[in-house]
């Protein structure tokens, strides 16, 4: 068949977006996994049947001209963690799958068989993601002694590479995932699956992910590369987007030295989004401004300085506490090789007009949500919102004309996600204020 309309970069990014589908639902772990697997059957061949399906899937004909001809080969697997009260979170906290294509045409390079390891983004409804992975940067883990099954933090020695405790935790979770019995390559971990492959010598493997996974995908690729677990592949590439900084300067240098911008002999491309082993980020997206200090100093006023004292106070507190946390380990958080993409401020969200400068915290988070999502992959016009042209995908991937939902699954609306984000940030700020007040009282008592 003819080449799909999306180039290799866009296809890989599209696969990363599909990993995020589980974040749009609430339910039990088994229900969430089954729903994600059902959703993937629209896009991929050979997805094992679930729910009302009788046979392995054949990708919908509307997908092939856009995304290309992909097969699901591992997973999807996901995890539903427990909250501080020991209760299941009711959302997908992390998710992962592997897809394969016999022939991908690389711009400026050859046509190769490809495996893609697609990692899900932060689930906005997951407090676990926020607290345990995204925001856990005040402690660091020495990369040279890192054991994903036992996260041990240590003092920064300025010589070795270090990653944040949150990144270290996330990699441990991903490596512990087991493909369910009804999924592809059942009963195996990602490492076991990769070890069992015997690909052609020129086969490429690509790690990708958005948001949280924009930090996890390069870190996972580097870990498996250094563990000699990717030797069967001719080329290893990474395509992270919108990710927070996973580690400090020595780690960034280690990643950059291990994964050059292009394989030998490939020709660089003109598009801002067209580079491998590079974290691509919208310059109006708050998330990738963390955790490099010079970028975090822009967070509060990224959409203009709010004239509302309450809103301005919250945003300044968010920025200040984020900087304080990132500086605690004395490890200079540094972005891996990266490419900024030009964002544009948006006037309309799902709940109406968005003011900028933001008049309320809802304005700010609504803008943040759009900049972190639709500005990368586009939004179709609706009765209440105009279209948005994405900076990697100009418009979203095709979607089914009718939807099926696994019994017990509940949809999460965009407005719910925005309110969840506001709640998560407010709770994080309050916890820091409480900690600061407690320290002040203890200090006064000592005096």
Automatic annotation (TrEMBL):
Biological process annotations from GO: lipid metabolic process
Start and end residues of each Fungal lipase-type domain: 190-280
Protein name per its UniProtKB record: Lipase (Class 3)
Organism: Chryseobacterium jejuense
């Amino acid at each position: 068949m003819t080449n799909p309309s999306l180039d290799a970069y866009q296809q890989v990014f599209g696969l990363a977006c599909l990993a995020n589908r589980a974040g749009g639902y609430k339910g039990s772990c088994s229900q969430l996994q089954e729903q994600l697997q059902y959703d993937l059957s629209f896009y991929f061949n050979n997805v094992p049947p679930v729910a009302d399906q009788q046979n392995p899937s054949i990708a919908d004909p509307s997908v092939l001209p856009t995304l290309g001809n992909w097969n699901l080969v591992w997973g999807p697997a996901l995890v539903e963690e427990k909250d501080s009260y020991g209760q299941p979170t009711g959302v997908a906290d992390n998710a992962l799958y592997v897809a394969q294509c016999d022939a991908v045409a690389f711009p400026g390079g050859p046509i190769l068989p490809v495996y893609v390891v697609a990692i899900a983004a932060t689930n906005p409804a997951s407090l676990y993601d926020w607290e345990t992975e995204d925001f856990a940067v005040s402690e660091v883990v020495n990369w040279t002694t890192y054991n994903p099954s036992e996260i041990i933090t240590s003092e920064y020695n300025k010589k070795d590479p270090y990653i944040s405790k949150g990144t270290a935790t996330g990699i441990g979770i991903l490596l512990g995932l087991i493909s369910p019995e009804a999924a592809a390559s059942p009963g195996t971990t990602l490492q076991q699956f990769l070890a069992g492959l015997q690909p052609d010598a020129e086969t490429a493997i690509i790690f990708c992910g958005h948001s949280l996974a924009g930090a996890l995908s390069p870190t996972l690729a580097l870990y498996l590369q250094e563990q000699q677990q990717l030797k069967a592949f001719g080329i290893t590439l990474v395509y992270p987007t919108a990710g927070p900084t996973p580690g400090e300067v020595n780690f960034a240098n280690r990643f950059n030295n291990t994964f050059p911008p292009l394989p030998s002999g490939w020709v660089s491309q003109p598009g801002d989004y067209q580079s491998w082993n590079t974290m691509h980020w919208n310059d109006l997206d708050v998330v990738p401004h963390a955790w490099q200090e010079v970028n975090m100093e822009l967070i509060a006023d990224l959409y203009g300085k709010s004239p509302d004292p309450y809103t301005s106070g919250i945003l300044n507190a968010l920025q200040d506490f984020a900087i304080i946390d990132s500086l605690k380990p004395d490890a200079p958080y540094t972005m891996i090789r990266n490419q900024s993409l030009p964002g544009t401020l948006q006037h309309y969200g799902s709940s109406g007009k968005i003011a900028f400068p933001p008049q309320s915290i809802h304005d700010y988070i609504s803008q943040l949500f759009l900049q972190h999502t639709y500005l990368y992959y586009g939004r179709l016009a609706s009765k209440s919102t105009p279209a948005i042209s994405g900076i990697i995908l100009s418009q979203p991937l095709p979607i089914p004309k009718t939807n099926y939902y696994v019994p017990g699954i509940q949809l999460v609306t965009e407005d719910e996600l925005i309110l969840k984000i506001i709640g998560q940030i407010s709770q994080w700020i309050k916890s820091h204020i409480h900690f600061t007040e407690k320290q002040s009282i203890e200090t006064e008592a000592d005096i």
